[in-house]
Amino acid sequence: MTVRLPLALLAALALTLPAQAAAPGSPAAAVNVFIGTGGDGHTFPGATRPFGMVQLSPDTQVRHFRQSYPWASGYRHDDNSILGFSHTHFSGSGHSDLGDVLLMPYSGDTKLEPGYPERPHSGYRSRFSHLEEKAEPGYYAVRLQDNEVDVELTASERVGLHRYRFAKDAPAKVILDLRSSIYDYGSKNLWSRLRLRDATTMTGMRETRGWAPGRQLYFAVKFSRPISAPQLHNREEAIEYRGFAAPGKTPADKVVVEGKALVAALEFGVPADGALLVKVALSPVSEDSALANLEEMPGWDFDAERTRAGAAWNAALSTVKAEAPEAMRTMFYTALYHSMLAPSLFMDRDGRYRGPDNQVHQAKGFNFHSTFSLWDTYRALHPLLTLLAPERRNADFVNSLIAAREHSPHGILPVWSFHGLETWCMIGYHAVPVIADAYMKGIRGFDADKALAAMTASAEYGPYGGLEHYMKLGYVPIDREPEAASKTVEYAFDDWTIARMAEKMGKKEVAARYFKRAQNYRNVFDQETGFIRARKSTGEFRTPFNPVQSNFGSDYTEGSAWQYSWYMPHDNAGLISMLGGDAALAAKLDQVFDAKIADNVYAHMEDISGLIGHYAHGNEPSHHVAYLYNYAGAPWRTQERLANIMATQYHNRPDGLSGNDDLGQMSAWFAFTALGFYPVAPGSNEYVIGRPFLDKARLDLPNGKRFTIRAVGLSESNRYVGQVTLNGKPLARTFLRHEDITAGGELVFTMQATPNKDWGKDRAARPYTQTGYQP
Fold first, then answer.
1. Which residues of the chain have pLDDT under 50?
2. Predicted structure pTM score
3. Is there a domain that residue 125 lies in?
4. Parent domain of 306
5. Three-state helix/strand/coil letters over 551-582
6. Alpha-carbon torsion, ordered 594, 595, 600, 601, to 10 deg
7. For residue 90, what is the domain's CATH number?
């Protein structure tokens, strides 16, 4: 009997695991990648690079799509068994998919089915313990208890690297399963291929019909040891190939198996050192391109690759030097980490990528990215990246959106895209504010005229989401289009960002047209009830009306009237006027946060989570609401609400996110709020000041300047802003301009235990709002 030490003990003795790649005290060392892997955060703990194409992570999901929502990222912290390690994942999505190219090492009997979590040894699935699990940015490790294998994972941008350590004298074996997916086990496969190229190399592909129909992904697998006994199976047709030549073929022929249910069982003999390494490269183009992408990682030095991955993360996270108590510092850097996972690279080393027409294209002068969860991320994630990510990266994002529009069969910008394809998920044309916000903040490196043409084409594409009615009536009618109230107000905001960019470009006619359209939110505001409401094509509001009603496909998108009646972030003065003044706005906001509601009011809507009264922090429509008190001259009320949200909706533990992270939006909200300000209206070039939650933060900006934020006297009791200075001078306004930050300097908050009700009261001190614009 071989006695094996668990990973936790081996790590402590420094026998198996190398020293932590990130230096103690560094930003990367502060990250807790397990935040969000429990509850409904839907994050994953595996290895990836900033915005990398490979997201190599363990999957614990169950087998049936009806249970897929809790396993949207493939992994849940409260599970106790691992299915395997696949190479593509979403971070925090509310929809499940991906989970491509799953590998599972083992040393016992070969089992071609994964088995069931409740039945140990029923398949190749293995139990594990969190005590024998370790992860940090760019690295993941775990001991598979049933399979008796220690697993380590790291990654470059296009290549995932596995290191398996088997028991002494134990045979090394690996399952490669192409049936597995996070969406549903096997049933979404349209076609797949496995090709044994030589004794150490395999290639293949998958075409799937999940969230993005017809998605194609190619891969190449390289092993550090030759395969001694390959078995390639098509489980759907009971076809099996053993050895290096298929029956009826000459030994020189390559072994190829195709079908919808492919799995390979590979044996490697008994490694003298007990180790087997595996490299997996992905490609959107072809198997040969995947082989070429393997050259991104030419060697087999796992520790060196892990160090490079950690260094890449430390460089990305070090754009902010934060000082705070340990728990807050951990949550802040984890939020930054989650904010840098998407949009992800989706391009081969030679610049080729696959677009929404499912054809191969060549990028010229930019890196093509996909995985744009735009309904979520235009609000805070992209504004955060315009502030902290290199200008080149932001230009890549914009160029990718423009390129996707050029390849789109519909001629419009992406709505919710991944792996190059369109899913048509959610509402709005929210690539528009991403582009406009970048342009307004001075990011260049893309064709502005081409970008504006793409933006207006998307805003005027009648067949999409009731736009033909919106352009004719000034609102989306509920008897012609579901979720009409939400669509109207979100279209109006998108229109305003088009106007802002057109105005800056000197396109006065375009600006005037879209500034006018930006006022369409008024057409669905019912002054009698004080709520945004859906209207029929004949003009009257739909009845009966219940402001807490929320159902998929109803008047609102993932929300109720209580959550959506604040969505005119570009014109909050207009909202104040319609409600009856500053006091009326503040009183209505108080009703949102202070409401006592029954537990079952929103229980049927899984996306409406993180409730404080009717405020739902676990979903995006509420994210700007706490900052609206500033527009009524009462920023001290914003400070109170933010303290409550930060204390109740975020925690340094696996279930530490109150809702789906949604490709980084929940985390970006936290990062901005911790710094002390938030972009209520992307495209305005203003950040509404809240209150800081870090003692000190230094932003090392892409232009080489530094902007420092200090909180003097910050404590649990000192939760109010007493005064603010910018570069040593008192700051009377309750917002920062983008140029205030990019110019460099210092913002100082003096905190106190009682509210300062005079600061920010004057109208001149309040943030931007459109009302009053004269074209």
1. 1-18, 63-66, 250-252, 773-775
2. 0.95
3. yes
4. 7-314
5. CCCCCCCCCCHHHHCCCCCCCHHHHHHHHCCH
6. -120
7. 2.70.98.10
